[in-house]
Write a structure and sequence with these properties.
single chain, about 550 residues, alpha/beta, Rossmann fold, Four Helix Bundle (Hemerythrin (Met), subunit A), 4 domains, four-stranded antiparallel beta sheet, binds zinc ion
Length: about 550
């Protein structure tokens, strides 16, 4: 049973989709006026993982992320750069999509609807709200009348008295300061569309009510977004959709914690820290501050995400983002990513160890991708009684080993079933990894392998991969490890030549020995003879 923390009820509830077996998820996406930074990746990575886990549980899942491509910030940016708003949007959408592709998220998103592609639907939706008495036109604008919707505040758990309402230059057009714009009349030289209320453009909140309904229906399953969107954005979405449809907009409101600057200011070898940011990056940092997305404004990591990808592998960043429970704030610093990356490398080392012992490539292990299939398969290996308390007990017995693996698998699934606790689940992957390494040592698999122990190890590795895949981890062999293995091969070849040269010298065949030394030197490899050993290094 999967349980989800629902912001609207403030409790964890059993997950039951509107239509059995199917799940619709709508995630509020970016306003595309600047290149993405790491804060923009938090929601997509979390909800992509939720989709993967629900799919593993047998659900057919549709994940929608909207793109806000008309907005005050886009208009300001297009004026600043003196290019059409659509040019700004197109550039930033390309940047965003490239980042999502690098993160392995893009293929898991079923649609990226854009506000400008739904203008007609938006106008119709607004007209319906006017007809039903929930909205009113005023001097070319259209406002939602908050007083007409009695449940206003039910998501953010605040009453009108606790809200300040919006002031600004439109306050005179509103019946109450709490009313918010559904349609904004165009100022001169602003992009605009014809409407029954004159030329204008949609407000931000209405696009999500319209596009979620178009793609997922009037009541869908999960609505996600950052914690900063609860009020007013999601509160206003609810007011619009529920006034228009007379039924709940969605069943589960899920809000992820925001990214915040870590207190650390650690200098990392060869990597940029706060003090090492270039002027250009400082400028970008200022821009990001104004985006108000992800509270990492002063952080060292407030650079364009595409630049961050030059420093860190996408899987390292995914691992970092999922190491914290999604409802908690993510403590950001390069040092933290570095640290988390070291943890991930211990899995990569295991993959190599596995291949060395069993000739089985970890990333080619055939594993069940569906929980039911997995249960059927895994049942065969479970001992009659599995005692979780025995997990930390040392053992060399294979049947006990199967029991331990099975217990960890259960703990992992329990963590994920409990409101997608990816942080807890990753902790269990580490424990499982420790058991696998311990088994290799206890069974002396590297010294005297035997068939049963090899099968048991492969089985344990397949469970590790099965669980990792539900988090979008261990999908492909990491590039670093390919580099490392080719470096390893080079080292071995050089050592072989050194050994041949030493034999030649012992046989007084100095001609051959010199040939090897000068040949290696031509390739940029210098040999240095010391007492008893020959060391080498690259000169180029
Ligand atoms: Zn939204």
């Amino acid at each position: 049973m999967i349980r989800i923390y629902n912001t609207i009820t403030k409790t964890k509830e059993e997950f039951k989709p509107v239509i059995a077996g199917k799940v619709g998820i709508y995630l509020c996406g970016p306003t595309v006026y600047k290149p993405s930074h790491i804060g923009h990746m938090v929601g997509p990575v979390i909800f992509d993982t939720i989709k993967r886990y629900l799919k593993y549980n047998g659900y057919e899942v549709k994940l929608i992320i909207n793109i806000t491509d008309v907005d005050d910030k886009l208009i300001a940016e297009s004026k600043l750069r003196n290019v059409p708003m659509s040019t700004v949007a197109d550039e930033m959408i390309t940047d965003y999509m490239n980042n999502l592709t690098a993160m392995g998220v893009k293929d898991f998103v079923d649609a990226f609807p854009k506000a400008t592609e739904h203008i007609n639907n938006i106008i119709k939706f607004i007209q319906d709200l006017i007809d039903k008495g929930f909205a009113y036109p005023s001097d070319g604008d259209v406002y939602f009348e908050v007083n007409k919707y009695t449940n206003y505040g039910k998501l953010s758990h605040r009453s009108l008295e606790q809200m300040t309402g919006e002031g600004g230059d439109t306050v005179e057009r509103k019946r109450s300061p709490f009313d918010f714009a559904l349609w904004k009349s165009a100022k001169p030289n602003e992009p605009s569309w014809d409407s029954p209320w004159g030329k204008g453009r949609p407000g931000w909140h209405i696009e999500c009510s319209v596009m979620s309904r178009e793609l997922l229906g009037e009541t869908f399953d999960i609505h996600g977004g950052g914690l900063d969107l609860v009020f007013p954005h999601h509160e206003n979405e609810i007011a619009q959709s529920e006034s228009r449809h007379g039924k709940p907009m969605c069943c589960y409101w899920m809000h992820n914690g925001l990214m915040q600057e870590s207190g650390e200011n650690v200098k990392i070898g060869g990597r940029k820290t706060s003090s090492a940011l270039t002027t250009e990056e400082y400028t970008k940092e200022g821009d990001i501050k104004s985006q108000e997305i992800g509270k990492i404004s002063k952080s060292k990591g407030a650079c364009a995400f595409r630049d961050m990808l030059k420093q860190f592998a996408p899987e390292t960043i995914r691992f970092f983002l999922l190491s914290t429970h999604y409802r908690r704030p993510i403590d950001f610093s390069f040092a933290r990513i570095e640290e988390v990356g070291k943890g991930l490398e211990t899995f990569y080392r295991f993959a190599k160890r596995l291949e060395k012992i069993t000739s089985q490539n970890f990333y080619s292990l055939n594993v069940p991708t569906n929980r039911n299939d997995a249960e059927m398969l895994r049942q065969k290996f479970e001992p009659v009684s599995t005692n979780t308390a025995s997990i930390s007990t040392n053992t060399q017995s294979q049947s006990k080993f199967y029991g331990i693996i099975s217990a960890y698998r259960k703990k992992f699934l329990e963590a994920m079933d409990d409101d997608f606790n990816t942080g807890g689940a990753i902790g269990i992957l580490f424990e499982l990894l420790r058991e696998l390494n311990k088994f290799i040592e206890d069974s002396k698999l590297e010294i005297a392998p035997n068939t049963e122990s090899i099968s048991a190890l492969k089985y344990g590795a397949s469970v590790l991969r099965e669980l990792g895949l539900t988090l979008g981890l261990f999908v492909n062999q990491p590039k670093e490890s390919e580099n490392e293995s080719s470096n390893e091969l080079v080292s071995k070849l050089i050592q072989l030549l050194i050994d041949v040269r030493n034999s030649a010298r012992q046989n007084k065949d100095f001609k051959s020995a010199d040939k090897i030394r000068s040949g290696l030197s031509d390739l940029g490899i210098q040999l240095e003879d010391r007492t008893g050993i020959t060391e080498w290094n690259f000169t180029k």
